[in-house]
Amino acid sequence: MRILIATAGSHGDVAPYTGLGAALRRAGHEVALAATDAFAPLVRDAGLEFRRLPADARMRGGGTGNRALMRAAAAFLAELGQGFADAVDDGTDLLLLSATTAPLGWHLTEALGIPGVGVYLQPTAPTGDFPPLVPGARPLGRLGNRAAGSFALRMADRVHEEAVAKLRHRLDLPPASAAGTRRRRERDNWPVLHGFSPTLVPRPSDWRPGLEVVGNWWPHHDPAARLPAEVEDFLSAGDRPVLIGFGSMASGDGERLSGIAVRALRRAGLRGILQAGSAGLAADGDDVLTIGHVPHALLFPRLAAVVHHGGAGTSAAALRAGVPAVTVPVTADQPFWAGRLAALGAAPDPIPFRSLTVERLADSLGRAVGRRAHGRAAEEAAKRLAAEDGAGRTLRAVERLTGG
């Protein structure tokens, strides 16, 4: 079976699909992954065919208000839809669609007569268990949570409307609204497999049939890969260090964040590794090391704790390693995952990014590392994650749904 996985976003929105794609390829399927050019090496390193999608243009141009951002997002999605149509060739047998690409992919499956399955990294369907994963959403009780979740989907429909109209015109399909298409998929119990652990988010009992939580898809890395020598030397030179990194967040804020990180580490009496990321974290000293990208699976098990932005992938990787976390959520779904880690006991309460200070970070580090309760909770969660097989469950579900 020839499978195309389509996703858009940051590193954390792409990397998990390299592991899923590699597992599907090992099972005998031909797998391509469509993403933006920046991720071509990541995709090819996993042994997958790369297909190009347009770069994220949402932040081009002026205006930072909600309306301006929605207009920019709508323009990007229209561009993405056209690029997505170019990425699907005549031999594709199955589309695996992320939460970002699904509202566009539905129209391609209709036009081409091929099946599609959702492969989401976040829970997007309304539920009474928690509010939608949009910035600032607060618990509103079961009825309020479901109503807020439904409202969030309607807002997403509005942002996709222009893209859907242009894509359907290109595909010679009759006009149809983004909202109407989504509702038809929901009525048909369109299958969505969620690539996160039920340890962090158990499947809500009020979800419709067809929505499943299968476990994490771990990013691919070469089994022969090793940590750089300078990292090994630093790890061997003293007590387990703390990693501090913000992934693709906080671009341009590196000098301030680096200063906070180093002072907080020293106040807590801990050694540290700063991961540069988009923020450009950097520091010098015998008790601190600056690094670039290294696989989480290799580094995290050797740490005392991880300070991170609360991204879904980093949150899961810290749990998988059995180490406590200190979360500093910045935006999007990060407050949700940060709150889940805290509720599980594997992290202290999150520190909102705008409230980050030396004192707060040092205090949270002291609690995460000094109090065994957080470490024990992370270790217990790691045992449960080790028993899960997200890629295997997805493979079986895909072959069952497609008869492949």
Keywords:
single chain, 2 domains, alpha/beta, Rossmann fold, 404 residues, 46% helix, five-stranded parallel sheet, seven-stranded parallel sheet, 12 strands
Could you please describe the fold and organization of this structure?
- This protein is α/β, with parallel strands linked by helices and 404 residues long.
- It folds into 2 domains: 2-216 and 388-402, Glycogen Phosphorylase B (Rossmann fold); 229-386, Rossmann fold (3-Layer(aba) Sandwich), CATH 3.40.50.2000.
- Helices cover 46% and strands 12% of the residues.
- The chain has 14 helices and 12 strands.
- It has a 7-stranded parallel beta sheet, sandwiched between helices. It has a 5-stranded parallel beta sheet with strand order 10-9-8-11-12, sandwiched between helices.
- Strand 1 (2-6), helix 1 and strand 2 form a beta-alpha-beta unit.
- Helix 1 (11-26) crosses helix 14 (390-402), helix 4 (102-112) crosses helix 5 (141-170) and helix 8 packs across helix 12 (358-370).
- It is globular.
- The termini are close together.
- Mean pLDDT is 93; it is low at 57-64.
In short:
Helix content is 46%, strand content 12%. By secondary structure, it is α/β, with parallel strands linked by helices.
